[in-house]
């Protein structure tokens, strides 16, 4: 399939936006080549998501199944950002990946909540009720009732996303800040694409941790399927060293 890819259209890469997109694309090649251990972990986690989704017919909890698909999509988006070195920009994707998993378990464990969630936009009162129900605290509590280890990791990762890019907090800015002092001036530069660095490794690690944590949370929804397909054993292997 890769040999049949179309060449870039005329004009691609000649403006600043497509030039940036192309640079991010090339960065993924470099990360693939030079960070093979991290890439292998990320792709094995992706395979876990795919095995759960494949031939998942007539799920008992269709809302959780749909949220699982969105979680997988968010995980892949986080992988794209991490491999490109978009270290601050990956954290919103990490956050929503965790939220999809947490929402799915929270709905699964609370009868009638799925219907309320589906009706979020019916009226202002329902929207407010859904907002009050789906707080990080409530979701963390639900995860903890099933798997305290997953709840602790969820909480740690979620707070990390808030600090490092999912909200415009200080570390989201200073973590990608380069300061160059010259004789007559000081330059401040925001790094959009990190090269090989601690920041790159941290982004790859966080993405892998998020993939594992999300799968561990979804095990509380699809326990039988996880056991049947050996997914639990696989993510426990992939969790080692994270």
Characterize the largest beta sheet: strand count, sense, and whether it forms a barrel: 2 strands, antiparallel
Alpha plus pi helix count: 12
Spatially, the strands of the biggest sheet line up as 1-2
Supply the helix-strand structural class. Answer: mainly alpha
Strand content: under 5%
Domain count: the total is 1
Gross morphology: globular
- Quaternary state of the chains: single chain
The helix-strand sequence is HHHHHHHHHEEHHH
Task: Specify Rg, calculated over alpha carbons.
Answer: 20 Å
Task: Compute the number of strand runs.
Answer: 2
Runs with pLDDT <50, length 5+? none
Question: Portion of residues in helices?
Answer: 55-70%
Give the overall pLDDT as a whole number.
93
What is the terminal-to-terminal distance?
A: 33 Å
Descriptive keywords:
242 residues; 12 helices; 4% strand
Gist?
With 242 residues, the protein is mostly helical. It has one domain (38-239). The protein has twelve helices and two strands.
Topology:
Blueprint: H1 16-34, H2 36-53, H3 62-84, H4 90-109, H5 113-118, H6 124-133, H7 136-146, H8 148-166, H9 170-174, E1 177-181, E2 186-190, H10 198-218, H11 223-229, H12 231-239
Antiparallel strand pairs: 1-2
Explain what the structure shows:
With 242 residues, the chain is mainly alpha-helical. It has one domain. The protein has twelve helices and two strands. It has helices at residues 16-34, 36-53, 62-84, 90-109, 113-118, 124-133, 136-146, 148-166, 170-174, 198-218, 223-229, 231-239; strands spanning 177-181, 186-190. The longest helix is centred in the first third of the chain and has 23 residues, at 62-84.
